[in-house]
C-alpha cells in the first residue's frame, strides 16, 4: 500500500485498521501505540525509530524527529500529520 498523493494520504492516515498494521510492523504493542497515536504519551527514541520505518513502509512522511520533537502533548499522530500536510513540510 504505497501512497503518493497528498489528498489520498490525508484519508489513508485515518484508514480503519492502520493503527494495528503499524503496531505489527513496528513490533510495538497495540496498547503502547494507542497511547502514542492519541497523544497521551510521547514515543521513546527506540519506538520513534520503529515507527519511522513502519510509517515510511506505508508511504507516510513521518520520521523519528516528528515523534520525538514535532508532536505536541495531547496532539496525536493524525492531527500532527494533517497539520504537517497543510504546512507543506
Q: Main attributes?
A:
single chain, 89 residues, mainly alpha, 6 helices, 64% helix, 0% strand, disordered N terminus
Structural commentary:
The structure is a single chain. 64% of the residues lie in helices and 0% in strands. Residues 1-5 have low confidence and may be disordered. It has 6 helices and no strands. The chain is an all-alpha fold. The chain has one domain. Helix 2 (18-26) crosses helix 4 (45-57). It is globular and about 30 Å long. 25% of the residues are buried.
- Helix/strand-derived class? mainly alpha
Mean pLDDT: 86
Based on CA atoms alone, the radius of gyration comes out at: 12 Å
Number of helices: 6
Q: How many domain modules?
A: 1
Question: Cα distance, first to last residue?
Answer: 22 Å
- Gross geometry: globular
Largest sheet: none
The poorly predicted ranges are 1-5
Report helical residue fraction.
Answer: 55-70%
Q: Strand share of the residues?
A: under 5%
Number of strands: 0
Question: Can you write the helix and strand succession as a string?
Answer: HHHHHH
Give the topology.
Layout: H1 6-13, H2 18-26, H3 30-38, H4 45-57, H5 64-70, H6 77-87
Helix pairs in contact: 2-3, 2-4, 4-5
Report a brief summary of the structure.
The protein is mainly α and 89 residues long. The chain has helices spanning 6-13, 18-26, 30-38, 45-57, 64-70, 77-87. Helix 2 (18-26) crosses helix 3 (30-38).
Amino acid at each position: 500500500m504505497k501512497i503518493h498523493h497528498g489528498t489520498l494520504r490525508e484519508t489513508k492516515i485515518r484508514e480503519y485498521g492502520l493503527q494495528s498494521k503499524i503496531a505489527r510492523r513496528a513490533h510495538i504493542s497495540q496498547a503502547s501505540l494507542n497511547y502514542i497515536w492519541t497523544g497521551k504519551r510521547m514515543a521513546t527514541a527506540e519506538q520513534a525509530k520503529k515507527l519511522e520505518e513502519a510509517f515510511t513502509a506505508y508511504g507516510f512522511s513521518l520520521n523519528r524527529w516528528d515523534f520525538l520533537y514535532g508532536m505536541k502533548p495531547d496532539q496525536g499522530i493524525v492531527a500532527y500529520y494533517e497539520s504537517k500536510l497543510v504546512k507543506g513540510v
